[in-house]
Amino acid sequence: MRVLPEEIEFAKFLLDMGDGILNDFNDKIQIPECCVAPLNADIVEDIYGELIRKKEFAKVAKCAILSARNVDVDEINKKVVELLDITNERIYTSVDSAVNNDNSDIGEALLPEYLNSLSPSSLPPHELRLRPNCIIMLIRNLSINEGLCN
Predict the structure, then answer these.
(1) pLDDT value at position 119?
(2) How far is CA 20 from CA 34, 67, 81, in A?
(3) For residue 118, what are the CA distances in angstroms to 34, 95, 97, 132?
(4) Which of 3, 26, 66, 120 is most buried per CB count within 10 Å?
(5) What pLDDT, in 10s, does the model give residues 40-53?
(6) Can you tell me the mean pLDDT for 78-84?
(7) How far apart are CA 20 and CA 16, in angstroms?
């Protein structure tokens, strides 16, 4: 995680947390109140809403919401994309079939609905919705010359 040069106290907190200095005897960490959102907060709107409305997309790219669970990340990403202009939305879907080379009947058992419900962490979702100014991260370098790299 990167911090700004003037965020000395936060940088120290991150280093201490990473080094295990902040852990108590039960190996738990007390997170500062400034880092925890209230249960009823709309963190997507709080962090991205105003920036997107003002079209300050360079600043949007420097913000992040961290989550431990992929299901939460997917929901957050969906909410952020919904804040963007829908007029030029593109929807990309995954392939709905399984290739089976050993002539068994497993291909028939893997229904498209089941395949579409899978969400492995290394792959995009079955239905990927992208809008202009949507931030994406490539998990593989596609073309370094064109800047399509992670």
Answers:
(1) 80
(2) 20, 20, 36
(3) 35, 12, 13, 26
(4) 3
(5) 989 999 999 999 99
(6) 93
(7) 6
Question: Identity (one letter) of the amino acid at 5?
Answer: P
Q: Which residue blocks in the chain are alpha helix, DSSP H?
A: 8-19, 43-44, 50-53, 57-60, 70-83, 106-109, 112-117
User: What pLDDT, in 10s, does the model give residues 102-118?
Assistant: 666 665 667 788 888 88
Lookup result for tokens 């963007």? 84
Where do the domains of the chain lie? 1-36, 40-89+131-149, 95-127
Instruction: Give me 86's structure tokens.
Output: 């829908």
Q: How far apart are alpha carbons 43 and 76 in whole angstroms? A: 9
What sign has the CA pseudo-torsion 124, 148, 132, 53?
A: positive
Residue type for position 32: P
Question: Which amino acid would we find at residue 93?
Answer: T
Cα(73)–Cα(125) distance, rounded to whole angstroms? Answer: 12
Within 10 A of 111 (CB to CB), how many other CB atoms are there?
A: 11
